[in-house]
Description:
By secondary structure, this protein is an alpha/beta fold.
Amino acid sequence: MLKNRTAIGIDLDDTIANGLAFIIKYLKENCDINIAHKHGNGPGEADFFGITNEQNNKMFREMWDHSDEIKLMDKNIPGIIKFLSKDYELYLVTATVAPKESYTKWLLEHGIKFDNVVHVNRSNKKITYGIKLGINYYIDDFSEVAKSVADAGKHAILFKRPWNIDFAGRNKNPLIKAVDNWSEIKEYFLDIQRENPASHIK
Ligand SMILES: [Mg+2]
């Protein structure tokens, strides 16, 4: 492991792992809501779907109990992760409710390998631990994470999802870059390297 490389922290749920098909099915079966017309004012999935954080955690636990139904957010993710791992130290930084053995197995099955895994109990701890670990870039779909990262002077790449689209549209913070897909994430790091070829070295 090269310790002199710049580190990237990457989120799991809804950034790499796409369980939306399971979630829609789950919500239809368990909640009396019409998802198509639901759009809350809060920052995360729970607000978006109009459910409590506890209900959201229960739903994600069930989703990971059915990990065979979880897909990659983008089929190019394994290749892009491999590409990034040549120049950067890669951390999975997740607050998922899934058991570690469940998501590490899923990642392995999908050909994704991280240098390190950091499991935090709340999303707002990502930056706290990230700073200690020297992580400079964070890829996440949660706008609150992007905000805390930018507040700490680090770089956030916000993966656009329905629950952060308003935030992404309003964002003027130069430390937060909203992207539509993983190809844009690859481009983001290629641009950094084009501007400063040694940027991945601390
Ligand atoms: Mg997420």
